[in-house]
Design brief:
258 residues; Alpha/beta knot; seven-stranded parallel β-sheet; 7 strands; disordered N terminus
């Protein structure tokens, strides 16, 4: 049997004070965080689901549209891979985007992908659930697409090593959370060539992946997957703290009413 969390014993101080409101806040706080570990996790998970269901599609953490398979609102993350042309990379990106419930994957030619057996074999039906958008691989076409998304309030983030790039380990999406409500277009370059200069000039943020080996580059699918995961990880962390705050506020209200 697990030991119950004792806030007085753990903190080394007595709860109390003359201020009744302060006592209520402390009591509510420990009421939420004082459960056994599994109970706490369940409460947080339920609060997150309730909060997500109550928010509209305009919420900062929700993208455009609903995932038809899960019924969950999509994350406002668009991965632009029009410059990527190798089927295994495109299929891997499709699978990654579907797993993390992205808004869409942008490719050069959607119809060609869906007819390619190598793509469908690696994507393992992800293409059936994830929206695929076609944007031709010409610089002018991609630039037009990016400008359209910027007008919708999205930040364009390039996975590229530049003079002003932010390391992936340093919470690079913090700025987009504050300035663009988590709306991101992740722009990936072509295998070997990377991103053309005219497209780099349209980006709001440059992200690089820390490396320690002799080879100074990663496969484009691996790079994209790492950055997508970091975007989702930071977003879930933000939602977790919001859910805890909501639980504390709810229980504080119940204590005050009681």
């Amino acid at each position: 049997m697990q030991r119950k969390f004792d806030p007085q014993q753990e903190s080394g101080r007595e709860l109390g004070g003359e201020d009744a409101a302060a006592r209520a806040r402390e009591s509510a706080y420990y009421h939420v965080l004082g459960y056994e570990e599994q109970e706490r996790k369940d409460a947080v998970a339920n609060a997150k689901l309730t909060a997500a269901a109550a928010k509209s599609a305009n919420s900062k953490s929700l993208g455009a549209g609903i995932n038809a398979g899960t019924g969950r609102p999509r994350r406002p993350l668009i991965v632009c891979a029009s410059l990527v042309d190798k089927m295994p990379n495109l299929a891997g990106l499709c699978r990654t985007c579907e797993v993390f419930n992205a808004e869409a994957l942008v490719v050069a030619n959607k119809d060609r992908l869906l007819k390619d057996s190598q793509f469908t074999s690696v994507s393992v039906t992800a293409e059936q659930w994830l929206p695929l958008w076609s944007v031709a691989p010409e610089v002018a076409e991609i630039a037009t697409f990016l400008k359209t998304q910027k007008a919708r309030g999205y930040a364009v983030v390039a996975v590229e090593q530049t003079h002003g790039s932010v390391c992936l380990s340093e919470d690079p999406f913090k700025s987009t959370r504050q300035s663009h409500d988590n709306k991101v277009v992740l722009l990936l370059g072509a295998e070997k060539e990377g991103l053309p200069a005219p497209l780099l000039s349209l980006c709001d943020l440059y992200v690089e992946i820390p490396q320690a080996g002799m080879i100074r580059s990663l496969n484009v699918h691996v790079s994209g997957a790492l950055v997508v995961f970091e975007y989702i990880r930071a977003l879930l962390e933000e939602e977790r703290f919001e859910a805890i705050d909501e639980c504390v506020e709810l229980n504080m209200g119940k204590v005050l009413e009681g």
